[in-house]
């Protein structure tokens, strides 16, 4: 989801950051590699080594190691962006918020198997809503509509595949949306 958020921040709302246009592609690629591809390959590696039975993580206990590992990785990446790269405050804040959401999801996972898909998508939805309020002249209508439709499609697919019960879908949605909405609201609008 950070890949989607940074795509919106860098390209749909260019006035939100002071990152030069020449660096936006490199930054977006760095975020994509560090928050999407490396964690994805790590989870596939855990499955290959037999540490988890499947990348689907159908049972709650199968999620402990991958979610914990991804949380630690997000913390390291966020620290790296904050301490070493010196990007603008909004990019670092965005990573801090998303890292906090991943950590909360990991903690909740020890007690309840909520939908990580819905946590991430609803977080993106909340961020796009706040950005559209802060920057009303930006072209966020299509990303907003696309995210709403994707939330519905993913929630329906998770229910159809019997990967989650309705309460787990709702809890995941509420977790991601509330954390990201509150954080971005207070950071950008107050």
UniProtKB/TrEMBL annotation:
Domain (Phosphatidic acid phosphatase type 2/haloperoxidase) ranges: 117-187
Keyword Transmembrane helix applies: yes
Transmembrane parts of this sequence: 28-52, 64-84, 90-111, 118-135, 141-161, 168-188
Superkingdom, natural source: Bacteria
InterPro entries documented for this protein: PAP2/HPO
Keywords: Membrane, Transmembrane, Transmembrane helix
Name of protein: Membrane protein
Organism: Echinicola pacifica
